[in-house]
Amino acid sequence: MRLEKGMIEAFFSSHIVKYCGVGVFVNGIGYALFLLLTFAGLNHNLSASFTYFLGVLASFVLNRSLVFKSKVTWKLGFLRFCIMLFLGYVLNISMLYIGVDVLYIPASVVQLISIVCVSVFFYFSNKLFVHRGI
After folding, report:
1. Is residue 113 within 8 Å of 54, Cβ to Cβ?
2. Model's pTM, two decimal places?
3. Cα distance between residue 22 and residue 131, in whole Å
4. Is the terminal CB of the chain with fewer CB neighbours within 10 Å at N or C?
5. First to last CA, the chain
6. What is the pLDDT of residue 133?
7. Cβ distance 118 to 132 under 8 Å?
8. What is residue 14's predicted lDDT score, i.e. its pLDDT?
C-alpha cells in the first residue's frame, strides 16, 4: 500500500505528534540534566525539583508556540497551565490511592496507567482549556 505524501505530512503536522515530540524532547533533556546534576554531586531531590521546574516552563513555552499556536495571553495561559498541572497531580494521586490502597494493585502498574491517563488529560486540557481563546 502506497502512502500519499500529503497523508504523511498531515500525520507529522498533527497536534498529537507534535505534542508527543515536545514531551519526548523536554523529558529527554530534563533526564539528561538530572543525570548531569546528580553526577556533579547535587542532591537527587534538588536535581529533580530543578529539572521538573525547567521542564514545566519548557513544556508550556514549546506547546504554546509549536503545538497549539496559542493566541491566549502569556499570563492567562500560564495560570491555566498551572491549574491543569494541579488537576493532573490530583488525578495521579487519586488513581494511586484507589488502585494501590483500595484495590491492592501494585503501585508500579497503577503509576504506569496513571502516566497514560494524565498525559491524555494534559493533551486535551492544553488543547481545550490552556491555549484556547475565550
Report:
1. no
2. 0.79
3. 15
4. N
5. 43
6. 76
7. no
8. 83
